[in-house]
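Methods — Computational structure assignment.
A single polypeptide chain was analysed. Its primary sequence is given first, followed by the predicted tertiary structure written as structure tokens.
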Amino acid sequence: MRIGVLGAGNMAQALATHWVRAGHEVFVGARDEQRAKRLATTMGDTVRYGNLRRAAGFGDAVLAALPYGAGAEAVGELSDPLEGRVLIDCSNPVGPGFRLLTDGGPSAARRLADAAPGARVVKAFNICHEDVWRMTPPVFDGRPLAVPVCGDDEDALAVTARLVRDTGCVPLAGGGLDRAALLEATAALFIGLWVGEGADAQAIAPPLEFAAGPQGADA
């Protein structure tokens, strides 16, 4: 698969490195092409680089590894080359005090979809820190990490699921793109618990067999 990467930061490197290892063709794009070049060279001789427009037009799938606030503007400028492509948003709109910056408005993923209406936007990879994505693979207590994926286009979801598996993780159907806001809010909550409180956010959820309450327990 051909994958374009918008951005040359930590998430771009962490995720794209998995995809290079899986045999995909990767093109890294950034406004500063020297940054794109530096990132590409860390991933091997086969990785190409250039500006954002070339990266957007390169991939069957395109990863938007851009900061919230800059993402929609950048994607809006790339709406033509993104036409028909799978656009994966991994951003987290989290601000000071672990506040959700989109509170009361559209999700970060929806803003990308509005900026490039011809793209098939999927929300994924936003829950975990980039160092988790650098693990090969991200497995904890013998269980691969599950990655929630939200989107409206079945083919785009299938492409994203394949890329999730290529990181060594398990795709988890999260519903339509309208549920991306819930996924972003979950990230804000978890980041606040992990970083702000030093709490084990994973302890919030009971095992699956207890999700609907203990079966047969006394009322």
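Note: The first strand starts at residue 2 and ends at 6.
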